[in-house]
Amino acid sequence: MILVNTDYIAGKELEMLGLVKGSTIQSKNVGKDITQGFKTLVGGELKAYTEMMNDARALATKRMVAEAESLGADAVVNIRYASAAVMQGAAEVMAYGTAVKFK
Length: 103
What we know:
By secondary structure, this protein is α+β, with helices and mostly antiparallel strands.
């Protein structure tokens, strides 16, 4: 499966199959949430949240690819990511793009 954030793939003629997406809502346990809260007092990277968001993007991408594969897609073009806070310490991440088949 080819994944790109452009609306084309060089040298390929594409047939659009439709929008595909994947999403997840992730949170950290209360212990990590408290320790990361203390980190905001002194500044610096909140590594537990960075890891959480990286994991969430990977899972959302995996779910998007699974949806594309179910349509018989060869690639997903024009991939985008969106995130939103759902509550303190929890975030939704969505990956979406256009599933395509090579002609």
